[in-house]
Design brief:
Blueprint lengths: L2 H10 L6 H7 L11 H22 L5 H11 L2 H11 L9 H5 L6 H19 L1 H11 L16 H11 L6 E8 L6 E8 L4 E7 L2 H20 L1
Antiparallel strand pairs: 1-2, 2-3
Helix pairs in contact: 2-7, 3-4, 3-7, 3-8, 5-7, 7-8, 9-10
Length: 227
């Protein structure tokens, strides 16, 4: 493990039993065939559960819909990007030459995804308790209040609320293709609402952006179906 990665462990307040997990979490797909996207997938779920537990305790009088909107504000790309910068991730992420030349170390989507991958790595290394404790430390300095729910909803959050209001299952998102060179890829993402037999697609500069675009397309399809 490099000195920089060892210093990151101190900032995370977690010493890895398997340092390879941390190295993998900091590896972008442009650098190696072994990269952090699976860890990011895992960390995204751990992050959402950890933030949900935090909000359940802190905002005791808020209904489910308000808690969902506050959580959406806390786990959105802008917030995760800021937390990743505060941790010093920009100087630690391993990128391919093309991605590095194009400013990948500063790209919000790459940094947000890397932070989720680190959370996933902690989960695999030491279990949910350690990962949840990390999530709580990461968000300990942020002011969390019900007013955060007044912010504009992103398409994924809005679609989730629409389906929950109808007592339906959450949508399923799948990356069905990638386009372009590794350092400048776009992601083609599919959004499926199985109970309605609907599938829509969206394209974005990151998996997250592709999911938002697909969710926006699904919302338009649902509104058109109601007319």
């Amino acid at each position: 493990m490099s000195e920089a990665q060892a210093a990151l462990q101190e900032r995370l307040q977690h010493r890895f039993q398997d340092p390879r997990l941390l190295a993998l979490a900091l590896t972008h797909r442009s650098f190696s065939a072994e990269h952090n996207e699976r860890l990011e997938f895992l960390g995204d779920s751990v992050l959402n559960l950890g933030v949900a537990g935090l909000l359940y305790q802190r905002l005791k009088d808020q209904p489910e819909g308000e808690l969902s909107r506050v959580r959406a504000n806390l786990v959105k790309q802008e917030t995760l990007h800021a937390l990743a910068v505060a941790l010093g991730l920009p100087g630690l992420i391993r990128l391919g030459e093309g991605e590095a030349r194009s400013g990948g170390h500063k790209r919000p989507s790459i940094l947000a995804d890397a932070l989720e991958a680190v959370i996933g790595a902690v989960y695999l290394d030491a279990g949910y308790g350690a990962a949840e404790a990390l999530v709580r430390r990461l968000f300990s300095e942020l002011e969390i209040n019900p007013q955060m729910s007044a912010a504009a909803k992103d398409p994924k959050t809005e679609l989730q609320e629409v389906l929950q209001a109808r007592k339906m299952r959450l949508p399923v998102y799948r990356v069905v293709g990638t386009l372009g060179a590794q350092h400048k890829q776009t992601f083609d993402v599919e959004c499926e609402v199985s109970e309605l037999g609907l599938v829509e697609r969206g394209i974005g500069a990151s998996r997250r952006a592709g999911e938002q675009a697909a969710a926006a397309a699904m919302l338009m399809a649902l509104k058109a179906k109601q007319k």
